Amino acid sequence: MLAKGFFTVLFLIISNAFMTFAWYGHLKFHEMKWSQNLGLVAIILISWGIALFEYMFQVPANRIGFRENGGPFNLLELKVIQEVISLTVFAIISILVFKSEPLRWNHFVGLFFLVLAVYFIFKK
C-alpha cells in the first residue's frame, strides 16, 4: 500500500511538470528562434504533444492510487493531493524557468492553507 501511495505521488509530480510546460511553456517560445514564426495552431499542437505525456503519468497515478483499485486514496484525497502538487510544481517552475514572478508572503500563506486543507481532508 505504501508503494502505491509513493508511485501515485511520484507520477502526479511528473504529470504536473508536463502539464505546467504544456499550459505555460509556450509563453517562453518567443525567446527561442525556431518558434518565433509559429502560429497559434502550431503552438496548440505542440502543447497537446506535451500534454500527452502528462496523461501518460496522470491516468496511471489515479488508477494506482484510487482506493477502489486497491490504492490508498479516495477520490477527494487524490484530487487534493493533485492540486497541492500542481501548485507546488507550478511555483517551482515559475521560479526556475520564468524568473519573472517572485514569490511573496501571500503566496506562502496560501500554500500554508493548502497544507492545512490536506491535513483536514486526510483527518479521520
UniProtKB/TrEMBL annotation:
InterPro entries: DUF486. It holds the Pfam family DMT_6. Keywords: Membrane, Transmembrane, Transmembrane helix. The keyword Transport does not apply. The chain crosses the membrane at residues 6-25, 37-57, 80-98, 105-122. This is DMT family protein. Signal peptide: none annotated. It comes from the Bacteria.
